[in-house]
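does this look right to u?? PXL version
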Amino acid sequence: MQKKVLAVHDLSGIGKVALTVTLPILSILKIESCVLPTALLSTHTGGLGQNTYLDLTDEMKKIIHHWETLNMRFDGIYTGYLGNPKQIDLVLEAIDQMQGSDCPIIIDPVMADSGKLYRGFAVDYPEQMKRLCQKATIIMPNLTEASLLLNEPYVEGPYTKGYIEGLMRKLSQLGPKNIILTGVYFDESEIGAASYDRQTDEIQYVLNQKFPGHYFGTGDILASIVTGLTLSNVALHEATKVAVDFVGAAIQQTITDEKDPKFGVSFEGELPSLLPYILN
Ligand code: PXL
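got this back:
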């Protein structure tokens, strides 16, 4: 049976973040996406000028209530950019009402990067996001989001293994079984992610060549692949490796294409590399 994921993200028209990367990735893995959009933006909020922003909180409430009448049950719930604390409450309601019997909850606590909250988020937002992370099976913060979830000061890289491992163990104590920490690097040559499984206390690092600059949407691509592969029964550490390698290849392609990374990475040509992971 084909699996069905509830995808809770914004729709940014330009910039290849959120739904515009989530949907193609889940589709190529033969997973059905049911979409609960959080906001409609002209572009992402990260440096493409004065983006428009239509908040969809009230619409989300109506959509959830309609779906409850349809008795919807999902095989996975995957959330990314949520605009405000009210949306966190709505997602908690959706989890409560529509979580299937074997339904991983994958939370990408999108709110900050490079030591700073994204434009538009209040200072108490991380505290609200923590409530959602407590319900998660897998959380996928970057290092800024991890420090905010733990109420710790942001530390600039390069990092030590001791620091990274300490963060992951503390994050798993919030509730999630698995942690994937993104943006991990130990020197200026390589960057990637660390995955942690609380059950085995096992940590894996996947690192690829580090390029200067910021590549928008790569966190969303990573989390979408981990979501899809988890639903395809691929184990955490392998899913993380596939996702990090995919992002590395997409960044390489963006550089080859001489594209401005503010407009997102050239990931489309890499999609067929995910075909072997379709669950039959
Ligand atoms: O890639 C994360 C993301 C998602 N959605 C919106 C964003 C960002 C990052 O800047 O602005 C609207």
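Residues 4-277 form a domain with the UDP-N-acetylmuramoyl-L-alanine:D-glutamate ligase fold (CATH 3.40.1190.20). idk if thats expected tbh
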